[in-house]
Each structure stands twice: as C-alpha cells, then as structure tokens.
Amino acid sequence: MHIKDEVSWTALVSGYAQFGKANQTIDLFERMLDNDLKPDGVTFIGVLSAYSRAGLVEKGLKYFQSMIKEHVIVLIHDHFTCMIDLLSCAGRLQEAKEFIGRMPFST
C-alpha cells in the first residue's frame, strides 16, 4: 500500500469485515493502532462486525468502550446494531436486551 493513512487502513478493515474475514480484520485493525493511526467511526463498524463474526464478545465490548473513552467516537445507530449482533450471536440475549434499553435513540 503506497499511502498508509487512516482512510486506506479503514478501507481495508471495512473490506475484510464485509467479506467475513474476521481474523484479518482484527489483525489489520491492531496493526493500524500499532502504526499510531486513529480509527474513526467507520473503522469501528468493521471491527465490531469482525468481533461478532469471530465470537469475541469480550474484545468487542472492550473496543466499544474504547471508542467512547479513548477515541471519542460519536456513536451512531450502526455501532449499536453491531453490539446487539455481537451479544445476540453469543447467546447473551438478556445483555442484548439491556443494551437496547440503554441506546440513546428510539428503536
């Protein structure tokens, strides 16, 4: 990759996530952070989707919190949808229901 900025890394992360390549998505995201690049809200949609597909609930929850606290990402509906999917696919339906109840938008 000739231009290694946030946009190109986000495109790769999103592309791998869209095609179900969870491990590659997570690897790219961690390399992005290692290169001191700042992920944006779109990057995190790909990352959260990948964690959901890989069944890595705790890591997904950790990165959701880091979106808010460390990266100061403005949360949108898609971020919450990814988290509900993450919890539901792992059979954590009560937590998913509670998560829905805490969403700052109406469903």
From TrEMBL:
Superkingdom in the source lineage: Eukaryota
PPR repeats: 5-39, 40-74
Gene3D superfamilies to which the protein is assigned, alphabetical: Tetratricopeptide repeat domain
Key words, A-Z: Repeat
Pfam families xref list: PPR (PF01535), PPR_2 (PF13041)
TM annotation in the entry: none
GO terms (BP aspect): RNA modification
Gene Ontology MF, one: RNA binding
Protein's name according to its UniProt entry: Pentatricopeptide repeat-containing protein
Originating organism: Coptis chinensis
Upper classification of the organism: Eukaryota, Viridiplantae, Streptophyta, Embryophyta, Tracheophyta
